[in-house]
UniProtKB/TrEMBL annotation:
PANTHER family: G-PROTEIN COUPLED RECEPTOR 143. InterPro entries: GPR143 (IPR001414). Interacts with heterotrimeric G(i) proteins. Interacts with ARRB1 and ARRB2. Interacts with MLANA. It is a multi-pass membrane protein. This is G-protein coupled receptor 143. Gene3D superfamilies: Rhodopsin 7-helix transmembrane proteins. Receptor for tyrosine, L-DOPA and dopamine. After binding to L-DOPA, stimulates Ca(2+) influx into the cytoplasm, increases secretion of the neurotrophic factor SERPINF1 and relocalizes beta arrestin at the plasma membrane; this ligand-dependent signaling occurs through a G(q)-mediated pathway in melanocytic cells. Its activity is mediated by G proteins which activate the phosphoinositide signaling pathway. Also plays a role as an intracellular G protein-coupled receptor involved in melanosome biogenesis, organization and transport. The lineage of its organism: Eukaryota, Metazoa, Chordata, Craniata, Vertebrata. The chain crosses the membrane at residues 24-46, 67-85, 119-141, 153-178, 190-211, 244-267, 287-311. It comes from Picathartes gymnocephalus.
Length: 392
């Protein structure tokens, strides 16, 4: 699971709340993390692999949104590998991890492993949060026709730059001036928690607003494409809205337990003695949400693929296929048709005029198809309702 408590556990003088959750059934907790992360990894990779009997979807042009969705899944996969590795070491070598508790110990490898693995998990899940925010921004810009594949470079710079900067800054403030003196005061811990949860809270607040604006813009595009708002277009808009709803639902399910757990642990930290009897229910709630985090955090990768693409099936096609490049096929067919070109091609001129008259409709179809990519029924209805399909 991804929690700033993983970094604070690396401090030998960790606070009592962190000590409470990290010492609660560590073998069971590590086993839960390994099991949940392993299942999520296998199912996520299965979802992303090509399937037998399914032809690759042909897009009018490359989609930055589809690239972002793939990068979100990659971040979840790599973060899951980090969870499995960290939990396996903790479960297999308890004596190695126990050396972290020794103040001024001569063996630096336990602390190095603790800090390195925690930073790996935090960095990748933080990058996943930023990519999810970029997906919401890109969806809105695509509908507004203000984005394209070239903007993916800006998204890379923003996502990886902010993720690395916040991760390094939070770790540096937490461990300053050394591991033996971290967690001596809230001035060390609070900046670390802020840098960890800032992208998560940004997605919770900003993405619903951006998704709502995108859905409204999609409805306007569908109405203006042919001047009418048919049942198929209404259903297509509803499916795009449901896709955004599923994405946010998965995100809330997987990470709401983290926010609840941190709230409870911070409340316990503010108490003079967290072992008091009146705090028993709060301690129990913190421990329960701690285990829930170990289950739900790694499952985000698989649940996101369900929200993105739906269930893609079990039949995996591992045969390598050469994919036809759209512009290459267009050029070859053009050469074949115009081997002996005439000085004036009236048919081509008529075709060009028709293409100009349907440019806006094609751009609308491209924008909608990018948002509904992965939904076969939506793609088919979009194709049948487009002017190109109707023989314009």
């Amino acid at each position: 699971m991804a929690s700033p408590r993983l970094e604070t556990y690396c401090c030998p003088n960790r606070d009592a709340a962190t000590q409470l959750v990290m010492n609660f059934q560590p073998a069971v907790f590590c086993g839960v993390c390994i099991g949940s992360a392993s299942v999520s990894l296998l199912l996520t990779i299965l979802q992303l692999l090509p399937k037998k009997g399914q032809s690759p979807r042909k897009m009018p042009k490359a989609s930055s949104s589809s690239t972002i969705l793939l990068l979100i899944s990659i971040c979840d996969i790599l973060g899951g590998f980090g969870m499995i590795f960290r939990s396996s070491v903790w479960l297999g070598f308890p004596g190695f991890v126990a050396n972290i508790s020794v103040v001024n110990g001569t063996d630096v490898w336990p602390s190095t492993f603790c800090v390195g693995s925690a930073m790996w998990i935090q960095l990748l899940y933080s990058a996943g949060f930023w990519w999810l925010f970029c997906y919401a921004v890109d969806s809105y810009l695509v509908v507004r026709r203000s984005a394209g594949l070239s903007t993916i470079v800006l998204y890379h710079m923003m996502t990886w730059g902010l993720a690395v900067m916040l991760c390094v800054e939070g770790i540096a403030l937490l461990y300053y001036p050394s591991l033996s003196s971290c967690e001596n005061g809230l001035e060390h811990a609070i900046p670390h928690y802020i840098t960890t949860y800032a992208p998560l809270l940004l997605v919770l607040v900003a993405n619903p607003i951006l998704f709502r604006r995108t859905v409204s813009a999609v409805a306007s595009l569908l109405k203006g494409r042919q001047g009418i708002y048919t049942e198929n277009e209404r259903r297509l808009g509803t499916e795009i809205q449901m896709r955004f709803f599923k994405i946010m639902l998965v995100f809330v399910i997987c990470w709401s337990s983290n926010i609840i757990n941190e709230t409870l642990l911070f409340y316990l930290e503010m108490q003079p003695d967290i072992n008091e009897v009146p705090l028993k229910n709060i301690r129990s709630a913190a421990l329960i949400t701690w285990i829930i985090m170990g289950v739900l955090n790694p499952m985000q990768g698989f649940l996101f693929t369900l929200a993105f693409y739906g269930w893609t099936g079990w039949r995996v096609d591992l045969k390598w296929r050469k994919r036809e490049i759209p512009w290459e096929s267009m050029s070859s067919s053009t050469v074949g048709e115009n081997t002996y070109p005439s000085p004036v091609n009236y048919q081509s001129n008529i075709h060009d005029s028709k293409k100009i008259s349907t440019t806006d409709s094609q751009q609308t179809d491209e924008a909608i198809s990018m948002l509904s990519e992965g939904n076969t029924s939506s793609d088919e209805r979009l194709t049948r309702s487009s002017p190109i399909y109707q023989g314009w």
